[in-house]
Amino acid sequence: MQKQWLMTLQRMPASGRSWDAVISADLLGDEQSGKVDAIPGLVSDVHWSASLQRSGDLFHLSGEWSTAIRRECCRCTAPFDWQVSSVMERDFQLGKADDTDARDTEADEGVCESLPAPGELDLLDVLREDIWLAWKADVVCSEACKGLCLGCGCNLNTEVCSCTRDDSDHPFAALRKLKLNG
């Protein structure tokens, strides 16, 4: 882990800290660094602009990030680069030096993560957590994706299917026989 992203909150200047940085995909994808799971499939570096402001023992992190991650479309199973971005808001609070476990406490505007003094914070782990929070289970390569043929399994975006559809055993097939006067 790069030391520039390790913060000791107790020693942070009153003016806070701001950054507009590009974080290497290799660094965020490195399984040997950090405590939070590495992000698989990053195809571009992460652009991260944020600020960390101090107010007594409370620290407010706000910012935004964007990147591209290699994913598989849930409709057609083709790989594609998923463009993802998010706005982040996190609050941290310094606890007492003898606090051995970090606890979440209710702050004025939501949950605040409590860190034992001196408040060691790995900002790359915070960024990884936020990327995982933005992760969607099902993503599509495009809204117009046609998916796979239910009969032969071909990708309907790239191939023409020659399957004949037989919906006679479909639960609503009997509705086709109704004569409706309109």
UniProtKB/TrEMBL annotation:
Keyword match Transferase: yes
EC code: 2.7.9.2
Sample GO molecular function, one term: pyruvate, water dikinase activity
TM region(s), chain numbering: none
Keyword entries, A-Z: Pyruvate, Transferase
InterPro entries hit by this protein: YceD
This protein's name: Phosphoenolpyruvate synthase
Lineage: Bacteria, Pseudomonadati, Pseudomonadota, Candidatius Mariprofundia, Mariprofundales
